Model the fold of this input.
Amino acid sequence: MHDSQPPRDTPEQPHADAGRGSDTGHGPDTGHGPDTGRGSDTARTSAGGAVPRAGGGVMGRLTSTVDRLSRELTRAQAQADGRALVELAKGIIVERLGVSPAEAGRQLDSLAEQSKLSVLELAADLVNQASHDRIAELAREFVAGAGEPSVGFRLRSAEAGMLGASDVQAVAQSVLEHALRPLGAQAVAIWAANSDQSLTLVGWAGFADEQEAVRWRHVPPGVPVPARRALTDRAPVAYESLAAAGLPSIGQREFSGGRLAVPAGAGGRITGVLEICWPGALPARSQSLQRQFEALAELCATALDSRPASGGAAGNGDVDPQTADLLELVHGLHDPCLVLRPELDAVGRAGDYLIDHLNPSFEDFAGRPRSAIVGARLLEAYPLAAEPGGLFEKVEHVLATGESFRSPRMDLAALVDGVPLTTRARVSISRHGTRVVVIWRPEDGAAHVAGLLQHAQRLGRIGGFEENLHTGEIAWNETLFDLHGLPSHADPIPLERLPAHAHPDDEHTIGRFLRTLLHHQRAASTAFRLQRADGIARHIRVVAEPVLDADGRIAAVRGAYQDVSAQHWTEVALAATRDQLAHSEQQAAERNRLALQLQHAIMPPSRGPLDLHDLRVAVRYRPAEKDHLVGGDWYDALALPSGQVLLCVGDVAGHGIEAATGMVALRNALRGLAATGAGPGQLLSWLNTVTHHLTDNVTATTICALYEPRTRALRWARAGHLPPLLLRDGRAGELPTVAGILLGAIDQADYEEGEIQLRPGDTLMMYTDGLIERRDRSLEESLDDLLTTAGDADGLTELDRRLDHLLRYSSSDTDDDTCLIGITVR
Done:
């Protein structure tokens, strides 16, 4: 094919035979070409309508002429699109082979004959191989998958038609004829997305009714059309039946079948929507087909960015201003403004935004210089903007949809030296071409801060003043009048008269304050007692500083008075409380010392072995670690006049001096009662009566045992106490439990007795609960541990070492005092 020849294979046959309408593409495809020799009663006009044929008259000839001219115009458009695609292929051959345009045309003809393809198909293949765009990728996928080989040809033909189109209307016509009619679509609409969330119809093709585009030239915000849904979701939206979906849209009466709305955008921006109409059901859904529609939408987005809308329907569609105009606009704004340029990643998404420009009014709310902000990325300058719902997310939404963002109160945050700084501002974000403009107006904090200061002065009882020493003019705030007990219309009191209003004892203090302030010209502070006119004395703290003029001489004094009366009386009360607490602590320490001395006087912490007839008795007493826990544990081992031996151990409830005195009373009472010769059960019964009636709310547990040396019999009774242990033949066990309530609980009680025959070598252990009690286990578990420890000690020959072993390895953790008696039969 030579340079001057038309392409020998153009798209006119497939399209003309498919029944194209006029050059504007109105009217659905009927499957029959506009054959004027069919003898039908009507003929199609250029608008796709029908007019009566006038037989063989002038009207009929005129109608035939219009049909012929329409077909010729359509053929010419197809040839022009084909020539554009062929010229692109010839340019590729010229660039790669270095030949002339005429030689490139001959090379293209020769290659087409050898590959048995049409020149147009070969041209589309060459462009696809040389390109690295979405269309080329789709073409390669279809060839690799043995798909439809004409996909790349159809998309390249649509692109070529777009390159030669003068406006978006012509782009819509090219997309429909070259790419969508082969897929069964009959009409197409291209919508432009406006910043006010409205939609503008900027291109259409395939609709028979000329007025349909006029009626739909503008869709206000909030109208639920398919294009609005695709723009909101930022994803393609498909409807199997527009009538069943119940949504309004262009051509809803003519094409009530399937609808597909695909967002049209590039570089992270959605500038419009491509809406495709089918008379019946949608074609079978597939990923490859979906990618074709996305590629067509991207072509439409390119057209929206570079071509004007159709004059008849676009109305006042948005046209992106040039960058210079945008900068001139933001320079006139009085609020801080940032111009952001999206930085696109490999897939065309905005990963971050470069702060391209700052207007003269910009001041960083974090106090950083402009040079630290301009040229930085948004997430570098304001990393906290990446928080969910933050500034970055809003900018991303505005860039993608074109929908402006307004917020009367939004929190802005910056990170400076690891410290987050925040402010609240009125924020406005809008898209202008490929740029995003962010305007913020920090809240005017002057009135708010003034209100906070007033509340702080009120709560802190602080009054400010300023006194001009040259003119004598004095300024007080309302709080200062209240502190002095003066009405607001009274004359303020100058500093030189302050001693006359102070307590006489504080005159020297105020004199030093005034000399430092006025003579030495240094800031000073002091506290004094203010004598008000109403007779009330207030404790005041005053702080002031000199104000120097240009010559370094003092011109004024400013400062503040604070009423610290409440603080003063609190300190006085606190000092009295401290004194009282120290006195109470001293008394408690004295009581504990006396209780400990009383306890140690009666029961030394350790007592060497004591021989009583054939018994060897040893005692260990372990006091509590804390002095205030001095308890009422006691023991006794005494030879009675009857020849028996009294063995007992007990524990008075509580701690301190009361427990110690109760222990002494019970121990001495039991000694006196034992002289009667009564048995252990009777002794505890009498001791319970003494405890209940003759002591002040004392309760106690005890074990009382009487040993008969002649028979080695041991009789014993218990009042709520733990049973003794018996070590015999290398084993440790408890004595049988006998019933008995603790002492002092009721006025009269009976106590059961137990009796056991001891043998030479037996060892009896009597103890208080401080030896075994633990917070983290039951009493039964503690007793089992004690039996194990006592069994281990049976191998020791000396009684003292056995007792020390039990104390050392006891598992108690309650910090209670412990009393332990060991009795060995010789």
In short: The domain at 183-318 is CATH 3.30.450.40 (Beta-Lactamase).
